[in-house]
Design a protein that fits this description.
single chain, 335 residues, alpha/beta, TIM Barrel, 4-stranded antiparallel beta sheet, 26% helix, 20% strand
Length: 335
């Protein structure tokens, strides 16, 4: 398990009402429950060019997915807007772990917020290689993207099978003492079983959920719009799915005191509050940044107002407060 000083934190805690918003996530103090998601903020500098934007409004920032060697990514088109969402198939374009550690991390201001690496790979060996590189860096924590295809098994995604998910987590756990957060895919049969296996393998936290697979078709050419044929759907369209998955994973994770980053379609403070109530300890924001770069300020303020109105001393008091008659079941209720 990770050994981290729970008191250590960026020197400047900055959102207004920081006392209300602070959370302890995997032993790391976050100044806000907001986590900016991998692939949406580049390597931490993407939105700093926008007037008024500050990394300090987020408790943590997850860097772009990083592989062992540089990747150019998928052929175009790689992004397509859909009703209430966005399809993307970037293909993990990145400069490689060595460049990120040696050239990019030294340029980041670790007094602004927490920075989390996102580790990706096409073999278990590659996951281990990248995790080891980040373990020897100043990065605060490591997120494992287990939605990547396993080339040795014909391209099936690691994250869709509990056995393979656990193998990746266990292998990464063996080479780092930094907090490990496993990003779970919704594109699987039983996310609860996968969560359980990842917890047993040594993950310190869970990120729920990754994108939902989808596609779009150009009716004139009768071809897929996305060059990769399929892509990951994000944005408000997937929020109900994400909320249910967070609730289901929380049913497993709470007994082990494993915190969850709830993510998927969050655009408002009310959205964030729903995820917290469902069982998340922190909330991830990604697609919303593309059309509202100041969304973090609004979400922080909205959460703080809610906490004051309900006489709650800290946002952590909301986690898992959903009242239900019984546990959720994996059966359709319609028809």
């Amino acid at each position: 398990m990770a050994t981290v000083d729970p008191v250590a934190s960026p020197k400047t805690a900055t959102p207004k009402d920081a006392g209300l918003l602070e959370v302890n996530f995997c032993g790391l103090k976050f100044a806000s429950p907001i986590v900016l998601l991998s692939g949406c903020v580049g390597f931490g500098e993407e939105y700093t060019r926008i007037e008024g934007f500050s990394n300090r409004e987020a408790g943590a920032i997850v860097l772009k997915g990083t592989t062992g060697r540089a990747r150019l990514g998928n052929p175009p088109h790689r992004v397509y807007e859909t009703p209430a969402g966005m399809l993307n198939a970037i293909g993990l374009q990145n400069p490689g772990a060595g460049y990120v550690v040696d050239e990019i991390l030294p340029t980041l201001d670790f007094t602004e917020t927490r920075f989390i690496a996102n580790v990706s790979g096409s073999t278990i060996e590659e996951y281990v290689e990248v995790t080891r590189r980040f373990d020897q860096s100043p990065i605060d924590a490591i997120e494992i993207n287990i939605s990547c295809p396993n080339v040795k098994e014909g391209g099936v995604a690691f994250g869709n099978y509990p056995d393979m998910s656990a193998q990746v987590v266990s292998a990464c756990r063996a080479v780092t003492r930094k907090p490990l957060i496993t990003k779970l895919s919704p594109n699987q049969t039983d996310i609860r079983e996968n969560a359980r296996r990842c917890i047993e393998a040594g993950t310190d936290g869970l990120a729920v959920i990754n994108t939902v697979m989808g596609m779009a078709i150009d009716v004139e050419s009768r071809r897929p719009v996305i060059g990769n044929i399929q892509g990951g759907l994000s944005g408000p369209a997937i929020k109900p799915i994400a909320l249910l998955k967070v609730h289901q994973v929380y049913e497993v994770a709470r007994a082990h005191r494993i915190p969850i980053i709830g993510q998927g379609g969050i655009t408002t403070a009310t959205d964030a509050l729903e995820f917290l109530i469902a069982g998340a300890s922190a909330v991830g924001i990604g697609t919303a940044l593309f059309y509202d770069p100041m969304v973090c300020v609004k979400v922080n303020e909205g959460i703080a107002e809610y906490l004051k109105a309900h006489r709650l001393a800290n946002v952590s008091e909301l986690t898992g407060t959903l009242t239900t008659a019984r546990a959720t079941e994996n059966c359709a209720v319609s028809g």
